[in-house]
Structure formats: C-alpha cells, structure tokens
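fyi for ur records
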Amino acid sequence: MDLMPRLPRSAWMTLVSHALSAVGTGMTMPFLIVYLHDVRGIAVGTAGLAAATVGVGALMTNLAGGMAIDRFGARAALIGGWSVAAAGTAFIAVVGAPWQAFAAAALAGVGGAVASPAQDALLARLAPRTRASAFAVRYAITNAGVTAGGLLAAVLVSGGRPASFFLLYCLDAGTYILAAVLVACIAVPPPAEPSRPRPAPRRRLGEGYREVAGDRLFRRIWVLTVLLVLAGYTPLISVFPVYVTESAGLGPHVVSIAFVANALTVALAQLAALRLLRGCRRTSMIITACGWWATASCLALATGRLGTGLTIAACVLAAVMVGIGETMLSPALLPMINDLAPEPLSGRYNAATSLAFTVGFTLGPALAGLMLQHGMGAHLITGSIVMSGLAAILAHRLALRLPASANRMTQAPPATPQVSAL
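which gave:
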C-alpha cells in the first residue's frame, strides 16, 4: 500500500524546506545554555535568561508576523522570517558578551515567530485539497529532521572543542538560508476568486485581529489549542523527564530512549495513521488523541510502583502513546483552522494559533517547575489527565458547531486557480 500522499510539487518543495530547518533546529536545540555558559563563559543564570529570550521575542512579534503574512504574502513572510532566524543563529555563534546573547536569542525568536505561521499559511495555500495530508507529512518530517539533527550534533559536538559548537550554529544558520532559497523558487497560486469580486478594504493596524478575536468558533479552538499543549506536549517535555529521574529513580538515559521512541513513533506512524483515519471527523481525532495522552499519563503515574525493568518499559510505552496521539492531532487541528480562516485573514488566524501554542509552551514549563520544586510531580501528571479530559469535552462541543466542511478529513476540490510565479 502506497503510504505517501499525493501533494502538489510546490507543497513538497515547502516540506523539504521545512525539513532543512528542522535538521538545524535539532542540531542546536539542546545546547544553547550549555554553549553560552561553557564555551562563551556567561554565567549559567544569565545564559538561562538569554535562552528564555527566544520565547520572549516570539511572543512580542507573533501577531505582527500574522499581519506581515496578510500584507506581503506567506511566501515573502516565510523567507523574511527564516532570514532573520538565520541572522540570529549566526549571531549566537559569535557572541562574546551577555547583551549579545540576549540580542541574538531575541533575533532568533523574532524570526521563528514570523516563520511558524507563515509556514502554515503557505502550506495551506499550496495544498487546498489535501491539507490534512500536507500537515501530517510536515509533522512527520519535523520529528525526523529534529532527530537527524540531534544525531548529527552528537557526532559533531565535543565539550573539549569549542569550535564544534561554532560549527553547529553556523550549520543551523545555513539550513535556514537554504530553506529560504528553496521557498523563493516556489510558484504560489493566487487566492480563488469569489463569486462576486469586490475590492478588499484596507485594514488599519490591529483591525484584522479584532475580526479574528470576534470569531466565537475560533476562540473555542484557540482555548482548545492551549489545553492540548498543556495536556500532551508539556507533560512530555517538562514533566516526564523530571518525574522519571526523581520519582521513578531512573537514569537520564531512559529519558533519552523515551524521547527517541516518541520521535520515531511520529516519524514512522504518521503516514499510516493518515491512511487509517481517512474519512474520520477531525474533532473525533482530537478526542482520540486526548485519550491516548490521558492513558500515557496514567501509565507514567504507575512507573514508581513497578520494578526497574517494567518501569523502563512503561516509560518508553508512555512516550510512544504520546506520539500516537500526536499523529492524530497533526492532520486535524491546523487544517481545520485554515479551512475556517477567510483568505484575507489567513496570516492572522495562523499567527493567533501559533500564539496559542506559545502560551501553552510558556505556561506549561512555568507551572511544572513550581510544582516539581514542591514535590508535586504526581499531582502535575494527574492535572495533565484532567487537561486531556477538558480538551476532549471542548472538542466534542466544538463538533456541534463546526461546519462539516472544516470537520472532515477529505475536502471537495475548489476551483483551480492559475499559478503565477511570484
């Protein structure tokens, strides 16, 4: 059975560019604090604050990125975002003072904040009839790219060779530049003409976001997105490693094995899951993902009561379950949002969605750190089960209001526009 979906050539080019950036991210993602402290001699506390500036820069410019997409187009915004991210990453490679570390990290965050929604908007434009497949493939290659980048970093980086870190960040910047060049070669179709064409009114700064905020259906999806991050992604990234090492008494190598198992599950199972789920409702897929995540959290709770061998197996299995849930969410959530977004506001809708992810990834680790500091790891995992339940309830209620065209995996082909090489 052929698992590879049929996508337009331009969509595949976009996915290849995304794979390049994912490899670069995988090479440098775990090392920023270590690099700034051990190689550049910046105090570890200051290095941690500098690393957090990546998220601060993203939060400050996320919504502006959406306006840039709607004003200049998704392709131009993506090229600009990756160019800024490349500059920030290259700057990190040569920092020599704390203020430079803050500036470089903020620049990288700004570039990522623009590039992330631009990728979503561009991919949705290039694959209007196969959005679920396109976003599923993108999620699979993200995990594969990050894993490949991590393995490459393991070969290249050496604590005794500071130049190896310099090389790593230069290579990361290079992947962004290559990705931007590839996107620049893509021909983007114009939006489908409405049945009764009329000139689009010029929007003042922020006016478009008032329309997004006034969309009651999107507000429900925005809250659902934050809950999904807190229910599935935050426990895996922030809670699981500490709980496994402290409460279950396992070594860090078990965390590494579990993370590899999670990434491989997504990379290998995503396309098969896409085939199996064809014809399902997207809200049903989200609810099922919540069920997998809740089960994984229950299994994690039991790890401290098992023998060592069973505990290791349970940890790895929990990470695999989280990955299965991720394969169900990726072809459901973002395609649903892009089906609902009006074409003139596509950038703003995607940017607002990206902001929901950022909020979730900011709140989750902060809350996790406070609770873990007070020995409340079990309570935190119980909370993730509750979050999964709340997200499932919200998805069920959303299904009652969501148009059928946005809640199905397959779409009727729209009128095919002429492609212009912009």
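The CA atoms of residues 339 and 406 lie 6 Å apart. thats all i got for now
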